[in-house]
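[audit] Reproducing an earlier prediction to check determinism. Same input, same settings, fresh worker. If the tokens differ from the archived copy the diff job will pick it up downstream; this log only records the rerun itself.
[audit] input (261 residues):
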Amino acid sequence: MVMHPGTLLAQWDGLEVRLGFAPQLIDEQPYVHALDLQKTILPLLNGPSGKNLREPVVIDAGHGGEDAGARGSFNGCKEKDLTLDWALRLRRSLAEKGVNALLTRSKDASLTLPDRVAVAVAAHAGMFISLHFNSAAPSRNEAGLETYCLTPAGMPSSLTRSDAEEIAQAYPNNSFDAQNLQLAVQLHRALLQVNGHQDRGIRRARFPAVLRGQQCPAVLIEGGYLSSPAEARQIADPAYRQRLADALARVLATWIGKGAP
């Protein structure tokens, strides 16, 4: 693991990871915050502690119904359609490995964020994966993969959408802080093998309400930028979405204990 004084950016085994607090040099000695040691560094060094989790895996296709999400700059495709196709492919890939998976939606339907959480809670999910694609429109320059898990209590988020973030507040999903990060790292690494290593990092945030109430390890994936013409063209290819699904399925199956790493 490589860390740099004065910056939140760190590298873990070749992946970009964001710390909660910038390391400091004090009397020429490097110091890291105790929460980063507990919630970031040690979980990564110790490796996954949550394998052989229970089924089902709940797969959340982002957006739907009146909420179309982002639009593709390549052919105008809608995020809600792409995420649903990705989710359906992931469910099939998991089924082929003997893993039981449920969808929060299996068609183009509106679904509130609390409803998505409720599906996972009612199913006693072992893992929750929310699938999205990103946009920086009107800019066409941003591209790459981002993977999110919930920010641990007491730490600032690496991305916020409000100045009123309550860093001391704990949510149900914070019970899985270590597993959230470990799962995010493994899924992120697998997807980078598909997208050509366009890495925008593993991030922590509180704003995704679909993560906060989860009672199992939970990750939100932004699988690329629809505002990037090159990446939107790639995402629009069904064969590419199948490769994304297969990459996720391989990791998730190992966490269920039904696949080789």
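[audit] rerun output stored. Observation attached for the diff report: The chain has seven helices and eleven strands.
[audit] end
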